[in-house]
Design goal:
This protein is of the alpha+beta class. The protein has one domain (about 5-120): Beta Polymerase, domain 2. The chain has helices at about 5-15, 45-60, 90-95, 100, 115-120, and strands at about 20-25, 35-45, 70-75, 75-80, 85-90, 105-110. It has a six-stranded mixed β-sheet with strand order 3-4-5-2-1-6. The longest helix has 17 residues, at about 45-60. The termini are far apart.
Amino acid sequence: MYNPNTLAQEIADILDDRKAENVVVLDISRMSVLADYFVIASGRSELQVAALNDELTKRLSVKGIDPIHLDRGPRWVVLDYTDIIVHIFHHEERSFYNLEKLWADAKDVTTSRESATNTSEN
């Protein structure tokens, strides 16, 4: 069994390692029964979106953690890890769906290295 918060942060770090942009972890546990966390990330191209998905699923599968559902298009991927739903978007799709605005009341609990770097620079 895994701790959902720890796994959400690990997912953010994996995506950050593969150069995903604007990786965000939202705690939606008090707002929805869908999941406890959303992890949202952007890729710069269709190829990068696919590579982010491949790396994430490979690295978690090694630990025995596999998504219960996967939905994908050429420019987006949604992975359902029960307590964590991962959204990997091409920039344009991320802007269109604007999940951060839709879930604006969710608590941002991002602690990925990219987020920490961006926060310290501001």
